[in-house]
Specification:
The protein has about 475 residues and is α+β, with helices and mostly antiparallel strands. The protein has 14 helices and 19 strands.
Length: about 475
Amino acid sequence: MAKNRTDSLKKLRELGINPYPSKVELKGDLVSLETALGMEGKEVLIAGRVWSVRTHGAIAFFDIKDEKNRLQLFFQKDKLKDKFDLLKLFDQGDFMAAVGKIGKTIAGEISLFVDDFQILSKSLRQIPGKWYGLKDIEERYRRRYVDLLLNDEIKDIFRKKAVFWQSMRQFFLEKGFLEVETPVLETTAGGADANPFVTHHNALDIDLFLRISMGELWQKRLMVGGFEKTFEIGRQFRNEGLSREHLQDYTQMEFYWAYANYEDSMKLVEEMYKFVAQKTFGKLQFEINNHKIDLSKPWKKLDYTESIKKGADIDISKVSPNQIKIKLKELKISFENKDSKGRLIDLLWKSIRKSIAGPAFLVGHPVEVSPLAKRIKDRPDFVERYQVIIAGSELGNGYSELNDPIDQGERFSRQQKLRDAGDLEAQMYDTDFVRALEYGMPPVTGFGVSERLFSFLADRPIRETVLFPLLKPENDNKK
C-alpha cells in the first residue's frame, strides 16, 4: 500500500468523511456514463472509478470510468469553495460520485461541470500502467481484476462468452428442450472417460465424486422417466492435466433427445454451432491455430479408421494392442500406463488430428473407445458416434445412446476391470443406471460440448477465456 494513499485515507477520516460509504448520498437518479454523455445541458448524477487526475490551481480535471465508458469531470474552486481542497485527497483508482450539468469545455470536450461530489471508495494500491504493468501471464491471471481494468479487449471476451452460453440456451429452448439440473456430487462418477475429483460428505460419512460429465447418466435416466428432450449447462470437473485446451473445472452443455439418432443429432449440432457463432461473434469464418475455418460450408464426415490409416499408416481394425504400441514407438508417442486397445487407438487418433482443419464430423469409432454408444447394425465392432473436429481438435462429442441393458452391463464390467487394473480414466460400473435401462429407455441421441469451443472460436488459450483460472497459491510473503 502506498503511504500517501494511507495518509489521504487517515485525513478523510479525521475530517469526518467516510471513505467507504454504503451508498451514493448525493441527490438525483444515478445514470450510466453512456447515458450522461448524451444529456448535454442537463443535470445528471454519475459514479465511477477515477482514472486520471489533473489539477491546475483553481481548476481540476478528473477522468472517470464505469464498465463501458469514460467521462471528464471539470471542478472549479469558485463553485465548490472549500470542498475543492478535498480533491487533493483523491487518487487514480478511487471511486467517486458527482452531480452537475453536462456541457462542453473550451476545448470542446463533453464534460460534467461538477456542483458536488462524494468519495465512494478509497483505493490503497496504485493501478499499474497498461504498458508497464502486468506482463507475466500468471500474474495477469492471479490479478485478473487489474487485468480487466487495463485491457478492454479482455473484458470484451467475457461479454462474448456470456452471449455464447445465452445463445446456446436460447437455441435449445426454442427447439423445445427442457433445461434441467442434475447432481454435481455423485457416488459413482460416470458419463465420460476421466479421472474424477474426490471429496467427503461428513453427514453421510461417505466419499463422493465431483461429476465428470454434464449429467449424462442422469439425463438418460430422465429419458427412462418419460422426458424426451432435455439439456443442461453447468460446471464439471476432471482431475487431469493443464494445457492450451484443458481445464480441471469448466462449463459444459449436454443435450439428450428421444426418438432420434446420431444422424439427427449431427444436423441439429451443425445448426446450433452456426447459430451460436453468429450470435456471439457476428460471423461464421474464423482463423484458429493457423487453420482457416468456414462454418457456413457443408460439414464433411471423416471415418475414424480411414483417418488413422491415412495419417499413421495403420489399420486399427486388423491389429493387436502390441502392434499399435510398435506404431506408437515409431511415431515417438508415449503410451505409459496405457495398455487397453481403446486407449492406444485414441493416442493414435490424437497424433493425426492436428492437421484436420474441419469443420467435420468424425464417425465410425471402434466400440473400444465408446462404452456408452450404440453399435452400428452391420458393423458391430463400431458405434454410432461422432465428434466435431475444428482446427485440429475435438470440439463436441455425440452418439446414439446405448439402451441395451445387457450390452451396457458387459461394457461397464470391462471398464471396471480396466479401472481396477490402474486405469483411472476408465468408467465405473453404475449398477443403478443399468437397472434404469432394464425398465426401458427409448432410442436416444446425446451430445456434449464444453467452453473449449468458445476459446477456439476466440482463438485464445482456454485459460485466457476463464475469468479466474485455477492457480497454485502464491508465496505467503509475496505482496
